Amino acid sequence: MKKLFVLLSIVLLLGGAVSGAAVYNIPIDSREYLGAKVEYKRSFIFGPSLEIGLPEKGYGIVTASLLLPNGSLMELGIFSGQDKIRINYGQLTKAMKLWASHLKDAKLEPGAVSPSLLLVGTLRDENDNVRYFIKAVPINVKKVLDKRSIQVKLPRGSSKTLYNRARIEDKLKSIKPQKIKSKDIPATTENWPPNFDHDQCYWKCDPWTGSCYQVCLVWKLEQVLVSKSNTVIPLAAFQVTGDTNAINAVTITATYKQKTTQSLELVFSAAAAVERGGSASSMEAEIIGFSHTTNTRYLNIPESYVRIWGSRIDSPSVIGAGIRGTVILAKYRLYWWDGLVYQKLDDVAYVILGKPDEGDMTLQGFVESGWSSQYGGVIRKTMWFVHEYWEPSTYEKGQGGLVRSDINFVSSTDTVPLFSASAVALGTLSYNNLEIAPFVMAIGVGFNTDSTQFSLIHLDLQLKEEYKNQYVDGTFYSSKVKFQYNGNDYSLAGMYGDIYIHSNGSLPPCDPRTGICPTSNNLGRQ
After folding, report:
1. Which of 7, 55, 102, 455 pairs as cysteine with 158 (C-beta 3.0–4.6 A)?
2. What is the secondary structure of 33-60 as a DSSP string?
3. Run of H or E residues at 524
4. CB 335 within 8 A of CB 342
């Protein structure tokens, strides 16, 4: 009878454990960000964990970082695994404690914000090809501090081929032989990365000694090229020419809280460009996810607007509006790693991330006289990048004024709502590598929805009453570079354009990209 009682106790205990595990495996919250699914679960016996499901079946090595409030990247480490990886939860918690302190100062709840977990990885697929992926996935601050287990499922099929099997064999020949000073030093480091499996990388044999060892392909953060916090992130910029005396006012509005019961998040997307072999001609651009999200129901202000009176605007001038925030441009490089040393390759990746000042999202207005210029102030420089690297995509004409919302660009530019209100951030960074500028000059800003009913940025230009019969021309721009998202290629669009105010008997508008203005004899400059 005693044995039967013990047996029944064990069965009940095991049954309870299985039942408990099943309950704890049910997500208590789930979010989807550009195809990446994030699930939060109750932690069970072994404590909280952060698990990343890779975009393909295969062996992956991932460099993980987290965007901090001051604009720096905190490196969480390099991790590996078959089909999935696990990231050190202790390192993640350290980063989120910094975020919690920052949000407390900004008078926001820790549950309001989800900063970006940046994943830059290689993956050896089932056909021995090397693939790469770069993803930015928001992770909620409060969920980590509450010790929730987190499961991230990256979009299936979202990695890209870096080298095929034949190319890998060629690359292996170029690796310098491993130099081991002592027979006691192993050819690989067994505890790097965690769960490291020697058979999943590539064999390199020395033809002179016959010794063989393993080498792996790893992305490493080479340099934060530029990072600015508490800087202006432009959300709108316009080159204005013509009869500016006719302007009564230009109003630019940012609507953060929408009239809906839906829990919307205001999101800043992240973009990346991979330069294969160090050649700009082989650049691939992609929206890699979200660098920052804010639950709009926690925001302190429902909307913000700036009004620029016509008396402040000369012809030509650049006007605009922006919010304060942080922008960072980072460079990663691909390396061979043989267990002892890293050997650099020519393949590099550029990543641009941005976030708002969570405590103050008030719009700031700007007026700068003159043409757009690479050497002007923030708004003139922003418009210079737009004129240089974007292209006209939407044309509008209004009588007595011009009214436009970012959501209008969805159909006219063949883009999606998330990319219709971009922030051209490169002008604020003063970064002069113009080869990569078209690929990393802007990030998308909007709401985490595919619905076209939610507009973030609104333009309202009104002429004075006595000029109500005059016409206003608007030309709006979008990126020449197409960014991959959800299996399709889209342009980034936004409130960036040229505005020309007609007057009786006036000439056609000046070309804002050259500054050349038509005259009666087709000569001269205004």
Report:
1. 55
2. ETTEEEEEE---TT---EEEE-SSSSEE
3. none
4. yes
Helix (H) or strand (E) holding 296: none
d(CA 8, CA 5): 5
Q: Both tokens of residue 49? A: 């964990």
CA dist., res. 460 & res. 238, Å (int): 12
Q: Is 82 helix (H, G, I), strand (E, B) or coil?
A: strand
Rounded Cα distance between 218 and 336, Å, is 6
For the stretch 179-217, pLDDT in tens is: 544 333 333 333 444 455 556 777 777 777 777 777 888
Q: How many CB atoms lie within 10 A of CB 520?
A: 7
Peptide bond preceding 234: is omega within 30 degrees of 0, i.e. cis? no
401: left (phi over 0), alpha (psi -120 to 50) or beta: left
| pLDDT single digits (tens) 265-307 | 888 989 898 988 766 667 888 889 899 999 888 887 788 999 9
Q: Which two tokens stand for residue 30?
A: 């789930």
C-alpha dist (Å) from residue 85 to 53, 63, 272, 417 = 7, 11, 22, 32
Segments of 88-211 assigned E as strands? 113-124, 130-138, 149-153, 160-163, 202-205
Tell me how far apart the alpha carbons of residues 519 and 467 are, in angstroms, rounded to a whole number: 23
Amino acid at 443: I
Alpha helices, H only, 174-321? none
How far apart CA 318 and CA 377 sit, in angstroms, is 10
pTM equals 0.86
The strand pair at 265-275 and 445-447 is best described as antiparallel
**Helix segments in 153-207, DSSP class H:** 165-173
Domain residue extents for the chain: 27-186, 223-332+346-501
Contact call for residues 296 and 302 (beta carbons, < 8 A): no
Give me the amino acid identity at 185. Answer: I
Place of tokens 């050497």: 375
